[in-house]
TrEMBL record:
Name recorded for this polypeptide: 2'-5' RNA ligase family protein
Natural source organism: Pseudarthrobacter phenanthrenivorans
Pfam families reported in the protein's UniProt record: 2_5_RNA_ligase2
InterPro entries in the cross-refs: Cyclic_Pdiesterase (IPR009097)
Superkingdom assignment: Bacteria
Length: 169
């Protein structure tokens, strides 16, 4: 199984970019899931390409959506992960729901279904001193499909596909 994730980055990133798991660019998680890759396709390129193709239309429709950063909150065990909630936004919720619907089409499985659909709480985790503040405006202008362990290395992450306003969607 490979763990993939769709995210909306609020900091600049590039397609193919690799970064440490401990130093994510600021982002909003859209949906995280596992997908099985065939032994003959160890890199999973076909699955990732198919998934990216399925995501083209819903992502393009959401690009450019203005979002507002909301209140501070604590996620994770005992609320120990500091985050900012993202103010409710219909276009962001719709993108999340459409991406959730794509996961079974590639044989994927969402491990935390209680955090999806009606349970989805979009947020931006703080990373050290990197954070946003209540009332900050951001634009949904970079959506990415990220491999959570490229080549089996769980210490890094890699942007497999990037949709951005700069690239015309």
């Amino acid at each position: 199984m490979r763990n993939l994730i769709f995210v909306a980055f609020v900091e600049p990133v590039a397609e193919g970019q690799v970064f440490p798991r401990t130093d994510w660019p600021l982002h909003i998680t859209l949906v995280r899931f596992d997908v099985r890759f065939d032994a003959g396709n160890a890199a999973g390129a076909d699955v990732a390409e198919r998934l990216a193709g399925l995501a083209d239309v819903p992502v393009a429709a959401a690009l450019g959506t203005p979002l507002t950063v909301g209140a501070d909150a604590g996620f994770g065990r005992d609320g120990s992960v500091p985050v900012n909630l993202v103010a409710p936004n219909r276009a962001l919720q719709q993108l999340h729901e459409q991406l959730v619907d794509l996961v079974p089409e590639v044989g994927g499985r969402i491990l935390t279904p209680r955090h999806t659909l009606a349970g989805y709480r979009p947020h931006i985790s703080h990373h050290g001193s990197k954070r946003l503040h209540r009332g900050d405006a951001v634009v949904l202008d970079r959506v990415a499909l990220v491999d959570m362990a490229p080549g089996g290395d769980h210490a890094i992450r890699q942007v497999l596909r990037l949709w951005s306003l700069d690239a015309g969607g």
